[in-house]
Amino acid sequence: MARVKLEKVSKIFDKDVVAVNEVDIDIRDKEFMVLVGPSGCGKSTTLRMVAGLEEISNGKIYIGDKVVNEIPPKDRDIAMVFQNYALYPHMTVFQNMAFGLKLRKYPKKEIESRVNEAAEILEIENLLNRKPKALSGGQRQRVAVGRAIVRKPKVFLFDEPLSNLDAKLRVQMRTEISKLHNRLETTMIYVTHDQMEAMTMGDRIVVMKDGFVQQIDSPLNLYNSPVNKFVAGFIGSPAMNFMTGTLRKNNGIIFDEGNIQLEIPDVYFKDLTGYIDKKIVLGIRPENIFSANFSSGVKFPGKVKSLLEVIEPMGNEYFLYLNTGINQYVARVNEHEQMNIGEKVDIVYKMEKVSFFDVETGKKI
Length: 365
Ligand SMILES: Nc1ncnc2c1ncn2[C@@H]1O[C@H](COP(=O)(O)OP(=O)(O)O)[C@@H](O)[C@H]1O
Ligand SMILES: [Mg+2]
What we know:
The structure is a single chain. The chain has 365 residues and is α+β, with helices and mostly antiparallel strands. The protein has 9 helices and 21 strands. The chain has helices at 43-51, 93-103, 108-122, 137-149, 167-184, 195-201, 219-224, 229-234, 269-272, and strands spanning 4-13, 17-27, 32-36, 58-63, 66-67, 78-81, 155-159, 187-192, 204-209, 212-217, 241-250, 252-256, 261-264, 279-284, 289-291, 306-313, 318-323, 328-333, 344-345, 347-349, 355-357. The strands form 5 sheets. Strands 6-7-8-3-9-10 form a 6-stranded mixed sheet, sandwiched between helices. The radius of gyration is 25 Å and the shape is elongated. Bound molecules: adenosine-5'-diphosphate (ADP) and magnesium ion.
């Protein structure tokens, strides 16, 4: 059991490549923390510094209350599971799982009982005598996890462990790792580029970009209160729609995109006062857009007449790909009555659900 704390941790490669930039992360004992972000943002490097596989250029890493900067990987009491399971091909599953314990000179009895216990947790008891080449991808992944479990580490580290599996198996293994976390009650740090994995597995999520931490929060807080345009666009699928326009004063305030004009509700006025006659980014999630029948005579402040370009039926819902003539956007709707591709259709933005971002900094306003 252990808390893991990174204090202003940086990694600089080759004198000037700053892969990780003054990162502060405080992971609670028994927490499942996910590091997520696009490829190259510094997730693996951060994890490898916690593991001790990469030297720390600046800052401090604590495991428990000990600074581990100078402690070699084998003495950090952590276990890491990689994307490419790295099983020994000439060894059986049992031998693969036992290997680390054998190196550490554990008694034979203890090794057997730990391997059997891990095999039972992972439901691979019947595979113990097989060699890796006789296993499916999912089974190999379980063995790799088993090899970590037998060590009974204080902290588990996972680096994109599911990336090599097909989509269906990935979803299944994702819930199994969550269950494993509940059962073992151990601190876990899990790296992925997949925001769905992050959202479904994490107690909390660290969103990274270009070596910087953008936001650390619970999945729902990230979704509902992103601090900037990057986080808003990265979390959620289909992604949040963005359009740039100018704010104009006119009785109330209007967001003018060029082809469409939206009336902004009063509640936003206070935050937007500094942006009148300036460019601003409006964001709206696909589920906060609906199709409307204007013959009812109801006036909508968020009316967006748009060209319907593509309809994607998902079974329980539809994704509509729309175009204002200037901006493309996606709506996620339950029905699309009598709408045809290639037609101009009546669409409404729920204006009480929009967000605004600074054009230059990307910061949420
Ligand atoms: N050994 C290395 N030498 C030089 N640059 C590296 C090395 N390892 C990673 N990098 C660079 O550091 C950045 C972060 O890499 P990485 O942590 O692997 O990102 P991620 O895991 O988020 O995809 C990338 O720009 C990558 O090219
Ligand atoms: Mg990586």
